[in-house]
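Morning - 3-isopropylmalic acid inputs below, output right after.
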Amino acid sequence: MSMKIAVLPGDGIGTEIVAEALRVLQALDLAFEFEQALVGGAAYEAHGHPLPESTLKLAQAADAVLFGAVGDWKYDTLERALRPEQAILGLRKHLQLFANFRPAICYPELTAASSLKPEIVSGLDLLIIRELTGDIYFGQPRGRRSAPDGAFAGAPEAFDTMRYTRPEIERIAHVAFQAARKRRGKLLSVDKANVLETFQFWRDVVTEVHAQYPDVELEHMYVDNAAMQLVKAPKRLDVVVTGNMFGDILSDEAAMLTGSIGMLPSASLNARNQGLYEPSHGSAPDIAGKGVANPLATILSAAMMLRYSLDQADAADRIETAVRAVLAAGLRTPDIWSEGTRKVGTREMGDAVVAAL
Amino acid sequence: MSMKIAVLPGDGIGTEIVAEALRVLQALDLAFEFEQALVGGAAYEAHGHPLPESTLKLAQAADAVLFGAVGDWKYDTLERALRPEQAILGLRKHLQLFANFRPAICYPELTAASSLKPEIVSGLDLLIIRELTGDIYFGQPRGRRSAPDGAFAGAPEAFDTMRYTRPEIERIAHVAFQAARKRRGKLLSVDKANVLETFQFWRDVVTEVHAQYPDVELEHMYVDNAAMQLVKAPKRLDVVVTGNMFGDILSDEAAMLTGSIGMLPSASLNARNQGLYEPSHGSAPDIAGKGVANPLATILSAAMMLRYSLDQADAADRIETAVRAVLAAGLRTPDIWSEGTRKVGTREMGDAVVAAL
Ligand SMILES: CC(C)[C@H](C(=O)O)[C@@H](O)C(=O)O
Ligand SMILES: CC(C)[C@H](C(=O)O)[C@@H](O)C(=O)O
């Protein structure tokens, strides 16, 4: 039986980098069925909506979604519901992709690209697990009104609702404890229990779930402190679990510690291990179409797809090994290039990974 | 007429570091009236509440509050309303201290203490302006209930309300534009307008207020991107304004970039320039009572107090110059000590600043 992959390249460099990931997958000699669709700004241009019904249906019917990137300055003035980012939020919500895996790995060859000292980041390998379908991203009610109370009662105000239910916290906690068990047996849960009701509850529930994982060491930390520890000593952290809003901020901060965000993949999974796989970086409209974008984050996202959604861990290993070989051989796209290495374009980088497989 | 200062040393190292700041103020030969009171854990032990009525009254009647730090592990199991941090939140709310100034300065002598490369942080001097009395910190309603709707309707849930009224955004925007005007004429406003109603409104109102400051260059950035830019190239930023929650995270991240958080003061002001001044670091119960805490952040907070609340800019300059002289002379408390400098304790550091005045 072949594996059904929905391919959603999106905007900007999305098409170029997804093309290379597809070539790598095709070189594996596994039975894939790829079906491509428009998403983001490209879908808005063609169909008037960033996540057309047909694209959503395709994603829902697939075993996994390979996603490029969405967004461009030119859509900034559209009303919110039509902007490219809504496609990502819609896919997360409709596919119930509640578990977002964001590895932050600093490859030895690329340590110099980091703004941090080499001894602080070399060998960094941490995993941020971000809850992705709850929190203030989706909480109702939200909107504008006149302030019902407070020092400025009657003034125009805008508001949002942060919320988490017990089952939402439980399921992400289980995912995180299991991931920690497979790694260093340590889990850091990040919250703001000293201020927020939602995150005092988060801390309570994570602590309860911990009883089922006595072999994992659990630590709690406030989000402001976590933002500091990431800068100060990121290698002390291993698996970090947190809510949607804090996870958005911390996973990007962690990615930037490596200095090579063009290398970082991500996975977003639901309870049936259906997943959406995308690079951690954005659509980079400024370099789109120039053939210089780094396809490695997308290629490594395809590897995560094989491992998490398609039960093809060996094939995932092969891709990851090939990427490491290409780095070791000195090939670099411009974003990670440094003196003494060979500058290549998107296509040439893809070729090299295929050759190294 | 003498200037009335409420002195609230608090817990942990609070008493030691505030004592040195007081000695520095006393050496200035200005007419101060100091009145001391308990706050935080110390107040809870003595009066059963972290912010007793008498302490709040004293703070309200003063021209400024000099605050040490609060908190200790041993209060972690108290119900939230009685924990030391509630004293800070209560003071902010009752005194309406809406404008929080958090400078992140990397002193040339201390560049090596940073986990970032010297060329990335040397000479760093940025100012984060955090709104401090609104947002999800104080928004009502909040609490626990059974989920009224959503995929887990009926399940236990906790929730909080994020909200900002137009006048709240306007007043912090004015403070920020005015601060930017006195510096490099550049303001970065950080939001999450792509996801949150509250911060789309924030962006709209800040943009409107900008019309009154055509000489200041305004840029908007999403909070996840801001967390990255702080790590990547912090010197490109100058004045950053944001809400209470994002400000909590970004100001601590920015502070840690310097590697010497023991040096960083803060000011929290209301519309009448009444203010609360405290170091950016915490109560460090692990080193309390040992005479090794760094008093410089508190001493520099006293300087900010002179400048912002007491209209004594010359005296503020004198303190800041004295601190720089002491650093240049090679004196270091253990937290900022490095090979080739002289290690001193809290008291000796205070002595040195007084001598340098
Ligand atoms: C585009 C935006 C809605 C999204 C988010 O905030 O989740 C992005 O920042 C991300 O992290 O995937
Ligand atoms: C102690 C806590 C309530 C407080 C906050 O979150 O504001 C602290 O982190 C700060 O930044 O002053």
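Note: Chain B touches chain A through 68 residues (CB under 8 Å).

O.
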